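It would be a great kindness if you could assist me with a short task in structural biology. The matter concerns a single protein, recorded as an amino acid sequence and a row of backbone structure tokens. The record follows directly beneath this note:
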Amino acid sequence: MDIQDQSHSQLHLMAEPPRHAVPPSLQTSEDTAYPTQNDHYYSEKRRERASPSTFSLWLPELCASVLVLAMLAAVVGTIRPHQDKPLPQWPYNLSINTLISIYFTILKAGITFLPSIAAVVIILATILDPFGQQIIRFYSCSIRDYSQNATIPRMTVLDGGLGFHIGALLDSIGADMQNAIHLGIYQAASSVAPFDCPTGNCTFTSRYGSTGWCSRCANITDQVEIVAVPAENEYQTAPVNVTLPSTNLTAILAEGGAMLSFGTRQGPMGTIVQLLLGTNSTGTTTSYEPDAWASANYGAAECTIFHCLRTYSTSMDNGQLHETIETEAYAWGDEDTSTSTPSTSPHNPLSSSNTGTYKTSIDVSCLNASEASFLRSQGYIFSTTNTYWLAYNLSTPLTNNNNDNSSSNSNSNTTTTTQSPIPIRPECLYQTDATTTRSIAYYPPNLFDGTVLAAPGAMIGPAHLQSLYRDGNVSFASVNSTFSRLANSMTLYGRGQPSALTTQPAIGEVYAADTCITGRFRW
């Protein structure tokens, strides 16, 4: 080879780059005609990148599925603790609706990473919002407010509303009590106890007791005697006399007239008020109620007001208190205490047979086990299921001083006073005294004394007695109702006095109106 050809060949070799300098990714088929070890390595890497693992393929969908399930669990976990409870009060005024909306927003974001369900995602994203809001239902509810109590006053020591001293164990009746008595006569319906219910929605689940005044009336029309008085002349209509032999209470009747006579006598439970009506309606056209005494031309009743023990149950409707008298008892130690019905021969408050100054009774349902055991050890016989009241021998006055000067024994749950040991808690004891009962018994003879005369165009008699006459429609039912209202009015007066004699009130539950939530998980 000549020198010129050799130079040309060297120049050609210098212009051609080395084969190994070409990157494998840029080599042509000609360049890779003879694969090398590097070529095999890079080929394996390409195959690994082109074939990802199954886990790496499903990892996004698994994460999205877990997120969706977590949000559904969060919805249930948020609503369930507040099921049928008031709306939760969270910081920053965060409402439960807002939290549910956040959950469903995250849930919708999660299902977008589920390509396996394809177009279903679009449909789900559209309907999730309205269905999500339907999960929660709001409704009005009443929730117990434990920070407050409802109260109804009781009277554990009988308050007679007495005035100044006028005799041995005898006081006058105060003006307020007199007003209460007249209110009971005039009013058409019984008053309501002065209760305290802060929200207007309260319940008193337990019965409660109180001292008070009770009434009892008897229809004694069958005892009336009718006597015709001879007329003075043939032109005069003979008058008629109606008489009660027990007291000689008499009503003398002229033609077309009527007389309602009042009288009193002493009975075993206090003063008995008698009412006697007689009419001579010949020639009149007045029509009366069917049960009115005037329809039969005569009638009579006798009633008494006595100190008693009552048990009540209470309900409320639209903020109005409805108090029901469950039992009335005369249980002061001189009668059968195993029943709630007054005995037929209790003591006479005005007689010398009432030797005890204080009369005390126990609410048996109030007793705890140690108190009941103590009473039985002292010889008291009673049943915790059948006995309402139990007369208790206590010679000291029961006042709020018993609470102020008492010491409590934690083992026996007893209370003692500085005056005399009283191993029964004061809230279980009820008491009256001779001065109160005698003074109240002394008042009716002055109140129910007189007559009501009725004739065409005229009516004569005290106003409060005219109210019992009821324009001639007086009947046993109306008399019984009047005396019942009178006793209730006297009792409510005593229960409403803010004195030491009105003690621990009956406690009730207070409920407040609120908005509650419930989960409708079917949605």
